[in-house]
Amino acid sequence: MRTNVVIDDDLMKSALEASGIGTKKGAIEEGLKLLVQLKGQKRLKDFRGKLKWSGNLDEMRSDK
Questions:
Q1: CB atoms within 10 A of CB 27
Q2: CA distance 41 to 50
Q3: Which residues contact 21 (CB under 8 A, 6 or more apart)?
Q4: S-S: 21 plus which of 4, 11, 26, 47, CB 3.0-4.6 Å?
Q5: Distance (Å) of CA 55 to CA 29, 46, 52, 61, 64
Q6: Quick check: 24 and 9 in contact, CB under 8 A?
Q7: pLDDT per position as a tens digit, 20-54
Q8: 26 and 12 in contact (C-beta within 8 Å)?
Q9: Helices 24-45 and 9-19: crossing angle, nearest 10°?
């Protein structure tokens, strides 16, 4: 998808330096991937204590 955005120059410079990514496009894509990943992790955390699990951890942990 092609788009035009205005991004703070200092923020972009910091992102490029911190990430080691060589292009603005690469930095933006990496940032978007990270945003999607973090939001996905938050959705998983919302299930904490709400799912039922049955099994035997001791049995699963054995090297059989």
A1: 22
A2: 15
A3: 15, 27, 30
A4: 26
A5: 40, 22, 10, 11, 16
A6: no
A7: 999 999 999 999 999 999 999 988 888 888 888 89
A8: no
A9: 80
